[in-house]
Amino acid sequence: MRLLTLRELKNLVLAGEVVDTTAHAQVDAVVTKTTKDGKPYFEVHFVDSHDRVLLRAWNDTPVFVLCESLAGGHCVEINGEFSKHASYGLEARRWHFRPLEEHERVALIAGPRDLRERQDADFQFMADTVQSIIDPRLRILCEMFLVENGDRFRRTAAARTYHHARRGGLVEHTAQMMRSACALAGVYQKLNRDLLIAGVLFHDSGKLWENHVAEDAFGIEHCERGELLGHINMGIEIVNSLWRQLKADDAFLSWKGLTPPSESVRLHLLHLIASHHGELAFGSPVVPKTPEACALHYIDNLDAKMEMVFNAYATASQVAPNIYDRVRPLPGFMVEPLRPFPADSDVSGGWMADSG
User: Fold this and answer.
1) What is the four-CA torsion angle of 221, 235, 296, 172, rounded to 10 degrees?
2) Euclidean distance between CA atoms 118 and 286, whole angstroms
3) Rounded distance, CA 109 to CA 112, Å?
4) 280 secondary structure, DSSP code
5) Residue 235's closest CA among 225, 245, 220, 248?
6) What contacts 80, CB < 8 A, 6 or more positions away?
7) Closest CA relative to residue 115, chosen from 159, 79, 76, 154
């Protein structure tokens, strides 16, 4: 029996299939609830590197007793028959589980090979792009950040819901934004490329605490610091802390005569972090007031929206031919995209040729 990821399992069920299969996952939470008749049951939230599912254990099933010993963080193999329920979504029949062996647990936490390779490539792209920054102050600041926080960065989620809400999601989001930033800097050459790249790297740096994922887990943790300050304020704090370390270096004195002045560089970078949500209503303490700040906001928003759109095609059920059910927060149903014209097609003649 082929081992499925939770995303693969959900997609098969959404397509209308009844699937008898096996999946490895970590328990995110176990919640005790009660039916209308007063009978207890469990809602067990499972998570892996791609997705999450909720399974119910009713009190008249053998798995109910097993669930009494489950707790968040446990890694298990789930076996059962899965189908789509009209009210509950994913439904499991005759399902059961067993604890994973240590080598299975390690493989689960590491994630599928293709995901590991993609996230490793994304992190390397960020490191390489940082090396292309010409301004020594911004380059060294970015290097310090990656050296001090690289392992934590690799685990962090970009959000709790909607986009890149998974272990390592922040690396994927940031790398893709950096690719967009490099492309736009080539189109709009008045943009300060160095500043924009640094802004991309640091804009969500506070999420290393706000959306932290532990070394042996998939679930996004809550911490008092993140709840009280939020990632924008913490990102500003991170840059200022690194800047103080930078100022203590002897090289900083040699930059005294550089243009633009070092203090202006710091302030403009802080402004990118502070304004990247674009509006006061969306949590930014200030709106974008420089070209780089405007560009960063739109790059961030675009990458988040594209992730939501592509996920909608991958996860939503079809309500009609070529039309997919709405996935929030997208504004409406998604329609099957137009496929590109094949580049290797043998096309001869045509209107332009005939009209000549």
Assistant:
1) -40
2) 35
3) 9
4) G
5) 225
6) 20, 21, 92, 93, 94, 95, 96
7) 154
- 339: tokens are 């496929």
How crowded is residue 91: how many other Cβ atoms within 10 Å of its Cβ?
18
Chunked into runs of 10 residues, the chain (356 residues) has average pLDDT values of 84 84 92 92 91 90 90 93 78 90 93 91 97 97 96 92 88 97 97 98 96 87 89 97 91 87 97 96 95 98 94 84 90 92 74 56
Cα–Cα distance measured from residue 138 to residue 154, given in angstroms and rounded to the nearest whole number: 21
Rounded-to-integer distance, Cα 200 and Cα 273, Å: 9
Q: Which two tokens stand for residue 153?
A: 């960065």
C-beta of residue 153 within 8 angstroms of C-beta of residue 172: no
**d(Cα 208, Cα 56) in Å, to the nearest integer?**
32
CA distances from 143 to 48, 169, 177, 263 (A): 31, 20, 18, 19
Q: Which pLDDT score, from 0 to 100, does residue 100 have?
A: 95
Quote the CA–CA distance of 356 and 73 in Å, as a whole number: 71
What angle (nearest 5°) sits at the alpha carbon of residue 223, between those of residues 169 and 208?
A: 35
Q: Which domains does the chain have, with CATH numbers?
A: 3-106 (2.40.50.140), 112-309 (1.10.3210)
Element (H, E) at 117: helix 113-131
Those residues whose C-beta lies under 8 Å from the C-beta of residue 160, and which sit 6 or more positions away, are 211, 220
How far apart, in whole angstroms, are the C-alpha atoms of residue 262 and residue 190?
20
SS3 322: coil
In degrees to the nearest 10, what's the CA dihedral of 114, 132, 198, 157?
10
DSSP code of residue 161: S
Q: pTM for the whole thing?
A: 0.88
User: How far apart, in whole angstroms, are the C-alpha atoms of residue 86 and residue 79?
Assistant: 22
The three-state secondary structure class of 178 is helix
The DSSP string of 193-217 is HHHHHHHHHHHTTTHHHHT-B-TT-
User: Strand pairing partners for 320?
Assistant: 323
* β-strand partners of 323: 320, 335
Asked whether the beta carbons of 43 and 61 are under 8 A apart, the reply is: no
Written as six digits, the tokens of 297 are 């906001």
Region of 283 please: left (phi>0), alpha (psi -120 to 50) or beta. Answer: left
